[in-house]
Amino acid sequence: MERKTECEIVQDLLLGYVDGVLNAESKKLVEKHLSECEKCRKRLEDITKDIKENENNQKKEIDYLKKIRRKARIKSILIALGIILLILLGIYLYQFITICSISNKAENSLNSNNFYKETTDVLGDGQTVVTRTYYKDGKYKSVSDIYTEEGIETSLIKYATINSDEIIYISEVNKQISVEKGKFTKMINEEESLKGVTLLPFNTNSFLSKIGVAFIMSINVDTYQVGKEYYVFNNRFERTKNWEMWIDKETGLPIKIINKEGRKSFYTGTQVVKEVNDNIQEYKYEFGTVTDEDVAVPDINSLIGYTIEYINDEDWIQQ
Ligand SMILES: [Zn+2]
User: Fold this and answer.
1) Average pLDDT for residues 300-313, to the nearest whole number?
2) pTM for the full model?
3) Distance 22 CA to ligand 1 centre (A)
4) What is the distance in A from the centroid of ligand 1 to the CA of 54?
5) Domains of the chain, earliest start first
6) Predicted confidence band at 1 (pLDDT cuts at 50, 70, 90)?
7) How far apart are CA 159 and CA 170, in angstroms?
């Protein structure tokens, strides 16, 4: 009876003993009893084991919670990445579809048999070149005028017919006519090159070119200045954003190309910048307005005061 009571007392004290909160006397009593009683030693072992297991379980629980939280974080990052990818894919698809539509419109515009194009090239230094191109049923004429403060000077008139082997150049300034003939000239007299819109930032026929350009270009829509809508093409990888092309929404043809600060002049004999100008080309188009007279070749032999030279391009190609 007496011994059982001591066991009970000791066992009541064991938790405190393990936690190290017993006073010296109680601790001594417990240790003395433990050295004599196998049963209570076993009880102490069990308590210690229980505590350890409990601690392990708590640790496992915390680890589990951490794991779940980490998984949730990874999941939300993946979802965010997925959304960004979807947006980028959407932008890419929009650009690719836009380019295909521009390309179709440009091709339709260029299929016209009656086509007028005006190119204005601002050269800076008070000079602007305006080239008017007329095309009607296979016949082609272009007139280049140089505008300065002193007046307008026609520098060159050019006549050609599609698939013919002849081009006539008339220089009013030099009073000179050149008639160029030959295989090479015939190659130049292709419909596409005479209509002369090779200015799009992509090859209208090439699927690969469209895929590439949809990736490289950023395409926006604007209405500023022109009064109608046009696309603005920029190279998204060009950090300076100096190059810009405007493409008319209706015709699919370029109406403006800007090279910001594209022209620099220097003080003579130095590297010191005198003037910085934007290099700007503007294009206007009309369809169905070109008349037969616009493209009629004049009788060059009846032009007074001109010298005529005949050039066979095979002669100078061989040189
Ligand atoms: Zn005991």
Assistant:
1) 88
2) 0.69
3) 18
4) 25
5) 2-64 (no CATH), 112-200+253-318 (2.50.20)
6) very low
7) 9
